[in-house]
Amino acid sequence: MISSVLPTYSRAPLSFVSGAGSWLTEADGRRFLDLGAGIAVNALGHAHPKLVEALTAQAGALWHTSNLYQIPQQQALADKLVDATFADTVFFTNSGTESCELAVKMARKYFYDKGQPERVEIITFDGSFHGRSSAGIAAAGSEKMTKGFGPLLPGFVHLPFGDHDALTAAINDNTCAIMVEPVQGEGGIRPLPDVCLKGLRDLCDEHGILMILDEVQCGVGRTGKLFAHEWAGITPDIMMVAKGIGGGFPLGAVLATENAASGMTAGTHGSTYGGNPLGCAVGCAVMDIVTAPEFLAEVNRKASLLRQKLEGLIATHPDVFESVRGTGLMLGLKCKVAPGDFVAAGYAQEVITVPAADNVVRLLPPLTITDDEIAEAVARLDRTAASL
Predict the structure, then answer these.
(1) In this predicted model, what pLDDT tens digit does every residue of 4-58 receive, in sequence order?
(2) What is d(CA 379, CA 386) in angstroms, rounded to the nearest whole number?
(3) Residue 193: cis peptide before it, omega within 30 degrees of 0
(4) Which of 124, 153, 112 is nearest to 211 (CA)?
(5) Domain residue ranges of the chain, discontinuous segments joined by +
(6) How would residue 382 be classed by pLDDT, with cut points 50, 70 and 90?
(7) How far apart are CA 179 and CA 129, in angstroms?
(8) Which CATH architecture has domain 16-47+293-387?
(9) How far apart are CA 56 and CA 364, in angstroms?
(10) Neighbours of 18 (CB within 10 A)
């Protein structure tokens, strides 16, 4: 008999009932050190007092009115995002998947309104993950994501990761955009080198096409900048955001330049819950914390400390680990064992990690993790490796 919850997840036998900072408490009382942060969602850890305060205050005032009316909290968060980024305008969603849907629509509508309706093709890359909607799985293109769900949304061109010649050859009169993650998350913590990100920006400018960045997992301070593309000194035309922006509350956004968003006029897109007062109140609190220069400086310092300790861990267990990769507090342990086995073994040591493709275990701790917690995390990872 099918379970009352649709069985689309292969869940670990863990039920967490509370959390505080970098820690999760299981129903049986065990305390787990959380190096997954809900897959980079709980950017400020669990039950951050400023987020609890913002949500509680808003919950006592107003939950929902709909986008038929002005929403002051939405305007405030949009202003914060515009002030802190390349963007001129923001549309709020509930998730990264919804952000992908709008990014695709926005790019295609841009060229339609310019009298070039044939320009609908979006170039994407192997190993990418852009959500599980029809557009998201068509954009990623992998058999794992798409098998059994045809016919797929057309208009996506899939290229090998890092193949510059294939990229140049793929651009034609039907191309409207290139869509890429500055750091692939699900694909195994694969950062796109700064020089490549700059090259993509130049290529888009040269051919008059739009650059769409998916910063759903790598954004909101995760890499030590507010957004990962800032390390390369470039700006996109359209950017997908979610996960960390709500600190655990369902919230996403699409950020865009005025030019890229020019086709999106009244009635061309909408959302029932997107930009609701609750989500935007929390998002404002997240932005106030994460945009502080001293906060991002601390992320970078702690990232260096964690990476240094992980290098020592790899040296101690050469039969388990191959290397560490990634940037900021978005790191991956390339393993010589199955990543799922390592993650499962970690449960016995009460440490949470996340598997990814390319035999990688993801480490995505809260950006608020302390030095002592970093030391404890590596000790637990060491015991996990030893058990294997």
Answers:
(1) 999 999 999 999 999 999 999 999 999 999 999 999 999 999 999 999 999 999 9
(2) 11
(3) no
(4) 124
(5) 16-47+293-387, 50-290
(6) very high
(7) 11
(8) Alpha-Beta Complex (3.90)
(9) 27
(10) 12
Query: What is the rounded distance in angstroms from the CA atom of residue 374 to the CA atom of residue 115?
Result: 54
Q: Using alpha carbons only, what angle is made at residue 382 by residues 376 and 386, rounded to the nearest 5 degrees?
A: 150
**CA 233 vs CA 181, 227, 229, 245, 256: distances in Å:** 15, 11, 7, 22, 17
The verdict on pTM exceeding 0.90 is yes
For the stretch 35-49, pLDDT in tens is 999 999 999 999 999
SS3 68: coil
**CATH class belonging to 50-290:** alpha beta
Structure tokens at 224: 């030590």
- Asked whether the beta carbons of 310 and 331 are under 8 A apart, the reply is yes
Residue type, position 206, single letter: E
> Residue 162 — pLDDT band, cuts 50, 70, 90?
confident
Q: How many CB atoms lie within 10 A of CB 133?
A: 17
